[in-house]
């Protein structure tokens, strides 16, 4: 039986570094507060608050150039879609980016529009609670 305990391969080291970077970028969070699909189109909001991460600033800059789907932002930044979803969710809460809901007259509004409305209401009335009845 030949057991070698040599140094880890370069590919394994790169994978570990990538995981650590994603953890650092999202502050260890793995779930976004808002349900966003890969196809969610994002546009500019008001100016971002100071102290944002480099990745968040880049997302805002890209959205100011033109509206972009979340998956395009992930590809442009070279980050996993899940990490970009967490960052975008934070940016929606801060008002730095907005979910673009296309105007489709004559058709029922879809779930994405309701989610955008919900996010905006939660941002504006963060302390409010709903009561059944």
Task: Give an overview of the whole structure.
- The chain has helices spanning 10-25, 54-65, 70-77, 81-94, 111-124; strands at 41-44, 68-69, 97-99.
- With 133 residues, it is mainly alpha-helical.
- It has one domain (31-124).
- Helix 3 (70-77) crosses helix 4.
- The longest helix has 16 residues, at 10-25.
- The model has no long low-confidence stretch (mean pLDDT 76).
- InterPro entries: DUF742 (IPR007995).
Q: How far is it from the N-terminal to the C-terminal residue, by CA? A: 70 Å
Instruction: Determine the structural class based on helices, strands and strand pairing.
Output: mainly alpha
Low-confidence stretches: none
Approximate shape = globular
Helix segment tally: 5
Radius of gyration: 19 Å
Main sheet, how many strands, which sense, barrel?
3 strands, antiparallel
The number of distinct structural domains comes to 1
Fraction of residues in helix: 40-55%
Q: Strand order, biggest sheet?
A: 2-1-3
Q: Work out the number of β strands.
A: 3
As a percent range, the share of strand residues is 5-15%
Provide the residue-averaged pLDDT: 76
Name the helix and strand elements from N-terminus to C-terminus, one letter apiece.
HEHEHHEH
Which characteristics define this entry?
133 residues, mainly alpha
List the helices and strands and how they pair.
Layout lengths: L9 H16 L15 E4 L9 H12 L2 E2 H8 L3 H14 L2 E3 L11 H14 L9
Antiparallel strand pairs: 1-2, 1-3
């Amino acid at each position: 039986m030949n057991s070698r305990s040599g140094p880890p391969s370069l590919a394994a080291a790169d994978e570990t570094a990538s995981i650590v970077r994603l953890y650092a970028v999202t502050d260890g969070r793995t779930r976004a507060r808002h349900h966003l699909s890969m196809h969610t189109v994002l546009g500019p909001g008001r100016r971002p608050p100071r102290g944002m991460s480099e990745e968040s600033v880049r997302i805002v800059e890209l959205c100011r150039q033109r509206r972009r789907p979340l998956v395009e932002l992930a590809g442009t930044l070279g980050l996993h879609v899940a990490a970009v979803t967490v960052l975008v969710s934070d940016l929606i809460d801060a008002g730095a980016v907005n979910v673009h809901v296309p105007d489709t007259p004559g058709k029922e509004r879809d779930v994405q529009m309701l989610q955008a409305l919900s996010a905006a209401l939660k941002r504006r009335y963060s302390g409010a609670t709903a009561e059944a009845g």
